[in-house]
Amino acid sequence: MKKIITGILSLWLLVACEPVTDNRELGHVINESDLKLDVHATTEGGNEIVMTNHTLGVGSYWDHITGISAKQSVTVALPFMGEQTITFVGFCDGGQVVAKRKVTITKIDHPVAEEWSFFAGTEMGGKVWVWDREKYDDAVYGTAGWLTQFAPAWDVKPIADLEDLTSELVFDLNGGPNLTKKDATGKVLEKGTFMFDMSATKKNPDNGSQWSIGQLKLNGVSVLSGHAYGDETNKITTFEILELTENTMVLCWNPPTADAWTDATFWCFRKK
């Protein structure tokens, strides 16, 4: 009897120690050439673009420069002139496949968010921004209360001490959302891209009133004196938009976790 029990235990241990494997095969990844994608403008050279995935069994992810969409078909009005690249990511059982499609825009014949023209104008050369010394009486860069105030009011950098007093910011939509920082001679100091989100607003916690009207995000470039006040090592690329019109732009930054009324950095610009 003892031998029988020992044999059963040995068999159980042998079975228990066998690795559990899943022999099911992963699905395949479709070839890029087999994707059935339709990307076209609704008018010849126009800026309204339709993107549709006709590939059965493949999930959709569209990156159309101004945003993303997981819909099978999406229609957007792009604000950019020139050749644009739409990126598609298809989700298959076995992984992902990436494809790119190009469209060329020669005219803006469908309406886009007015903020694009506020930032960059409507001409190919874009819009030039400089310090707004007139409206803000030279108090264009400094600190004031986070979530509560709208322009530099506490520590203000003397206008003569600004390291880029005569420099300029050029926003343009020539091929994409471009931002270039130039010195007084026209030499390019920095060049990158910009994007904005006018739904990302903040309120004054004291009275619940709206404080910011949106958010500006830069890549590869910053604004004039584009660092936290008193800390040139802290380069800022995400700004709260406090004012944005055809002629005026006021930006602010503070760490997102900062309390109201703490020292925030403010920038005040005007259209040149």
Short description:
By secondary structure, the chain is mainly beta. 8% of the residues lie in helices and 40% in strands.
Describe the structure.
This protein has 272 residues and is mainly beta. The protein folds into 2 domains: 32-105, Immunoglobulin-like (Sandwich); 114-271, Lipocalin, CATH 2.40.128. Helix content is 8%, strand content 40%. The chain has 2 helices and 18 strands. It has helices at 2-17, 114-120; strands at 37-41, 48-53, 59-63, 68-69, 73-77, 82-92, 95-105, 127-131, 141-145, 168-172, 178-182, 188-197, 214-219, 227-228, 231-235, 238-244, 248-253, 263-271. Strands 8-10-11-12-13-16-17-18 form an 8-stranded antiparallel beta barrel. A 4-stranded antiparallel beta sheet has the order 4-3-6-7, with no helix packed on it. A 3-stranded antiparallel beta sheet has the order 1-2-5, with no helix packed on it.
Helix content: under 10%
Report the sheet with the most strands, covering strand number, pairing sense and barrel closure.
8 strands, antiparallel, barrel
Mean of all residue-level pLDDT scores? 90
Across the major sheet, the strand order is: 8-10-11-12-13-16-17-18
At CATH level 2, the architecture of the largest domain is Beta Barrel
What is the topology?
Blueprint: H1 2-17, E1 37-41, E2 48-53, E3 59-63, E4 68-69, E5 73-77, E6 82-92, E7 95-105, H2 114-120, E8 127-131, E9 141-145, E10 168-172, E11 178-182, E12 188-197, E13 214-219, E14 227-228, E15 231-235, E16 238-244, E17 248-253, E18 263-271
Antiparallel strand pairs: 1-2, 2-5, 3-4, 3-6, 6-7, 8-10, 8-18, 9-18, 10-11, 11-12, 12-13, 13-16, 14-15, 16-17, 17-18
